[in-house]
Amino acid sequence: MARFRLFVVVSILLVSVWVVAAVASQPVFSARNANEEIRIYPDTPVFFQPFFITAAGQWGSTCVPAFHSVNVETGIILLEARTPGALVPCDDTPTDWEISVLIQPQQPYSYTVRLSVISGITGTLLAFANHDFDVIGGIQQIPALPLAGEDVSLRLADVSLDSCTPQYLSHSVITQTITIEAQIPDLVCGQVPTPWQIDTAVDPLPAGEYRVEMFVTDNRFMPPQRTRLLDGSFLVAETIYTIYLPVWGCFGADVSPLVCESALSPGRRGLLP
Fold it and tell me: What is the rounded CA–CA span in Å between residue 103 and residue 72?
């Protein structure tokens, strides 16, 4: 029994020494010999677009960083990558690396991507990089390609320079121009950039190309100032119907319309005017 205990103790000591030696033998690279680059695609996403964040560079060994996590906060996107642990063999060959992550649509704002490369061995920060970009506002029609006679919603979004954001008043459709009116109340507002969003439903429209204009009346001025804030356009497609005849019953003894019916159903999504 004593010999067995001695064998277990010696084995544990040998394993511990091997792990320590493996950790010590792994090269640890700091931000000084890393070369990180962050790219956004598209370069300036619109508020209803998903976008990619890609981080790339050349690492000082074959143990390159891999994606670990991403966290989106107000104005900040935290992207973390980690190098492999101690049990992964590495050598000192400089190696290119790249990670890419898809980010869901974000509200209009100025964002900073903060990349952190963490050691998978020690948990310490090895490299970092920052990249600033903007998500811009605009006008989104829902659905993206509405059909004639289909309900349409418009979503408008942007960033105000302060906390006084536009409030919806009304909208009108004249020929093929949709005008949306909003106002800013006469209030004292904090000087903090504030994203805003307005949603409004539009009655079904005939096929054609429509222009959308948003005007904002700022009641903090005397007299109030009315300015055009956003504009855009979208298409409403014509509806196409295809006649389908069921095979069964149409060629039997009774071929009356009660047995052989035609059904109207939408074919392709639509035909652009």
Answer: 9
Q: How far apart are CA 124 and CA 78, in angstroms?
A: 16
Mean pLDDT of the chain: 83
H-helix segments, the chain: 2-25
* Residue 180: how many other CB atoms lie within 10 Å: 23
- pLDDT classification of 8: cutoffs 50, 70, 90: very low
CB 27 within 8 A of CB 9: no
Q: How far apart are CA 142 and CA 201, in angstroms?
A: 9
∠ Cα 108 40 122 (to 5°)? 110
DSSP 8-state symbol, 66: E
Q: What integer pLDDT is reported at residue 252 of this predicted model?
A: 55
Confidence of residue 86 (pLDDT cuts 50, 70, 90): confident
Domain-by-domain residue ranges, the chain? 26-135, 138-236
Distance of alpha carbon 252 from alpha carbon 244, whole angstroms: 18
